[in-house]
Amino acid sequence: MGYPMAGHLAAAHEVTVYNRSPARAEAWVAEHGGTAAPTPAGAAADADFVFVCVGDDPDVREVTIGPEGALSSMASGTVLVDHTTASAEVAREVHAAAAERGVGFVDAPVSGGQAGAENGLLTVMCGGNQVDFDRVLPVIDAYSRACNLLGGPGSGQVCKMVNQICIAGLLQGLSEGVDFAQRAGLDIEAVVDTISKGAAGSWQMENRALTMAGRKFDYGFALDWMRKDLGICFDEADRVGASLPVTALIDQFYAQLQREGHGRWDTSTLIHLLQD
């Protein structure tokens, strides 16, 4: 998702990119201009704002506070933004490391999938200090349709956990509804066109119901990543004393799909367990 997000930034700003797969960075430069750097530190040098979008907590640590991480070259008064879906713990850790250098930090996971990134319509959930958020908001506007500050460091990540918990439940309910409608002999397009305008309507219904019915799962947000995200949710739930019984059940369904070799399929693959 970082590839198209950086592309939107390049339309209005000078951008230097780094990717752990150099060929990706070179391809981006060929498409959008700008320059590529061999390390995160090289990309961050002389930048006013640095944006990170990687995979998980260890990746965040590597590219921010690692030996060649972005913070090693960022100047006081600049702002680091992490768009990775990671733990609130690592967000607070990087915030503390940034503060020691006089660098602002905003944890800012996103929702909207690949299509949202490509179309510049992501929802961005932020945690950090108001002054840092206010500085970076006009830049994030390049690829977002909504960007809100939820609280202090780590709050953006906690909000993203809420997002993933809700999506998991929605997708399981939608899977059961679509499968039920098909078995009952209803026209699924007519069903979705009707109920999407009522209380059952959701983004998942409008964007995934018909692809689920057509058994199309080879795009979108991979369930491998969803399981990673749900693991973060469970860790935080233990910390705050929350119960996630439905989410835990759906996580087991995703685990079964992984064992069947479908880890790179879209999260809507839940319906596969009902259809087969």
Describe the structure.
The chain is an alpha/beta fold. The protein folds into two domains: 2-151, NAD(P)-binding Rossmann-like Domain (Rossmann fold, 3-Layer(aba) Sandwich), CATH 3.40.50.720; 159-275, N-(1-d-carboxylethyl)-l-norvaline Dehydrogenase, domain 2, CATH 1.10.1040. 55% of the residues lie in helices and 12% in strands. The protein is built from 13 helices and eight strands. It has helices at 2-10, 22-32, 40-44, 57-64, 88-100, 113-119, 130-140, 155-183, 188-195, 203-213, 223-240, 245-259, 270-275; strands at 16-17, 35-36, 49-52, 79-82, 104-107, 110-111, 122-128, 144-151. Strands 3, 4, 5, 6, 7 and 8 form a six-stranded mixed beta sheet that branches. Helix 2 (22-32) links the parallel strand 1 and strand 2. Helix 1 (2-10) runs parallel beside helix 6 (113-119) and helix 8 packs across helix 11. The mean pLDDT is 96.
- Give the radius of gyration: 20 Å
Number of domains: 2
Strand residues, percent: 5-15%
- Give the H and E element order: HEHEHEHEHEEHEHEHHHHHH
pLDDT under 50 segments (min length 5)? none
Assign the structural class, choosing from mainly alpha, mainly beta, alpha/beta, alpha+beta, or little secondary structure.
alpha/beta
**Distance between the ends:** 31 Å
Give the fraction of residues assigned to helices. Answer: 40-55%
Q: So how many helices?
A: 13
Named at the architecture level, the CATH assignment of the largest domain is 3-Layer(aba) Sandwich
Largest sheet geometry: 6 strands, mixed
Write down the CATH class of the largest domain: Alpha Beta
